[in-house]
Write a structure and sequence with these properties.
heterodimer; A: 141 residues; B: 190 residues; alpha/beta; Glutaredoxin; 5-stranded mixed beta sheet; two-stranded antiparallel sheet; 7 strands; 38% helix; elongated
Chain lengths: 141, 190
C-alpha cells in the first residue's frame, strides 16, 4: 500500500518532460483593449493572422505563447493608433504571405483570383452555345 | 411520343472523344498530387523574409547575471557572428548546446536572445549545458524574435559585420550543420 502511494505520488509530482515556458502571459495576450472599437479592430486582424506554432489556427484561437505575444504586440500597436493593415504588412514583410489568412493579389497569387472569373466566362460561353442550339431545335419543332 | 427530341448526333460524337477521358485524366492528376504530398511532405518551417535585410533596431536587458544584455549596436562591426534564438524551456536548445560550444571553440562569436525566460531557470540551463554566449538579451514578449521573422526556438541567424542578416538556420544545430555554418560565416565575412 505504501509503495502504491509512493508511485501515485510520483505521478502527481512528476515534472512535465516537454514543458512550455513558465513566463506569465504578456499584458495584452489575454486582456482586451478598453475601447471596444479598438478591440474590434485588433480582433479583426488577430483572426486573420496565422499562429506560427499551431499553423492551422489563427493567433486569436491559439494558446501558444508566441501567439499570445503576437496578440500583445497587435493590441499595443492598435492602442498606439496603428492601422491593422499596416501591422499585417509588417508581419508579412517578416514571415511572408503564409502568415496572413487574408490573401492579397500579388504576382504569385493572382491566378487564385483570376481562375474563378475565367471558369465563369467559360461556363457562360458553353451555356450560351447550348441554349442557342436548343433554341434552334425548338424553332424546328 | 412521335415528337421524340432530336439529338444533335454529330455534336455529341465530336465532344465525347476527349470529354470521355477527361474525368479519368483529372482523377489521375489528383492521384499524382496526393503522391507528391505523401512522398515529399511539405515543410512546416516558416522562413524569415528578413534574410538579406539589416537587423532592426532593438535593445534587450541582460538575461543572465554574468553576461551583458544585447542591442543592435553590439552586433555591428568586427566579423560575422551568430544570433542564437533559444530558451531554457526548449528541449532542442539543450540538444544543440554541444554544437554551439564547438562553434564558440572555433572562434565564432555567439550572441543569444532568450525567449520568455526567467533568470534562475536560464542560469541553471547555462550551468548545465554550457554558456557559449558573448551576450544574452532577454526577450520577454518575443518582440525581437518577431522583428527578425523568427518563428520559434531554436533558430540561428548569421549576422555580417554591417549588421545584415545573411542566413537563417531553423531548428537545432546538429553535428553535420557545424561545417556548413562555419563556411557560411566565412562567406559572410568576405
Amino acid at each position: 500500500m505504501k509503495r502504491l502511494l509512493l508511485i501515485l505520488a510520483l505521478f502527481v509530482f512528476a515534472p512535465p518532460l516537454l514543458a512550455d515556458d513558465t513566463m506569465p502571459p504578456a499584458a495584452y495576450a489575454y486582456r482586451q483593449l478598453d475601447d471596444p472599437r479598438l478591440e474590434a479592430k485588433a480582433r479583426g486582424l488577430m483572426e486573420t493572422i496565422r499562429c506560427l506554432t499551431c499553423q492551422s489556427q489563427s493567433i486569436a484561437d491559439s494558446d501558444a505563447s508566441m501567439a499570445g505575444d503576437m496578440r500583445n504586440q497587435i493590441r499595443e500597436r492598435i492602442l498606439r493608433g496603428e492601422d491593422p493593415e499596416a501591422i499585417r504588412r509588417w508581419l508579412v514583410e517578416r514571415y511572408g504571405d503564409y502568415i496572413s489568412y487574408a490573401p492579397q493579389v500579388s504576382p504569385a497569387t493572382w491566378p487564385l483570383f483570376a481562375a474563378p472569373l475565367l471558369l465563369l466566362a467559360i461556363a457562360a460561353l458553353l451555356l450560351r452555345r447550348r441554349f442557342a442550339r436548343s433554341g434552334q431545335s425548338g424553332a424546328v419543332k | 411520343m412521335s415528337a421524340a427530341p432530336k439529338i444533335p448526333e454529330r455534336a455529341a460524337i465530336r465532344t465525347s472523344r476527349w470529354a470521355l477521358w477527361l474525368p479519368l485524366a483529372l482523377f489521375a492528376g489528383f492521384i499524382v498530387l496526393v503522391l507528391i504530398g505523401l512522398l515529399r511532405p511539405a515543410s512546416h518551417d516558416v522562413a524569415s523574409q528578413f534574410v538579406g535585410k539589416p537587423l532592426p533596431e532593438f535593445s534587450l536587458r541582460a538575461a543572465a547575471d554574468n553576461r551583458p544584455g544585447l542591442a543592435r549596436a553590439n552586433m555591428i562591426g568586427g566579423k560575422p557572428r551568430l544570433l542564437n534564438v533559444f530558451a531554457s524551456w526548449c528541449a532542442p536548445c539543450a540538444a544543440e548546446a554541444p554544437q554551439l560550444a564547438q562553434l564558440a571553440a572555433a572562434g565564432v562569436e555567439i550572441d543569444g536572445v532568450a525567449i520568455r525566460d526567467h533568470k534562475p531557470e536560464l542560469a541553471a540551463f547555462l550551468a548545465r549545458y554550457g554558456n557559449p554566449y558573448t551576450r544574452i538579451g532577454a526577450d520577454d514578449v518575443s518582440a525581437v524574435q518577431m522583428a527578425i521573422g523568427s518563428s520559434g526556438a531554436p533558430e540561428t541567424f548569421i549576422i555580417d559585420a554591417q549588421g545584415v542578416i545573411r542566413y537563417q538556420h531553423i531548428g537545432e544545430i546538429r553535428t553535420e550543420h557545424v561545417p556548413m555554418l562555419l563556411a557560411r560565416l566565412q562567406e559572410a565575412g568576405k
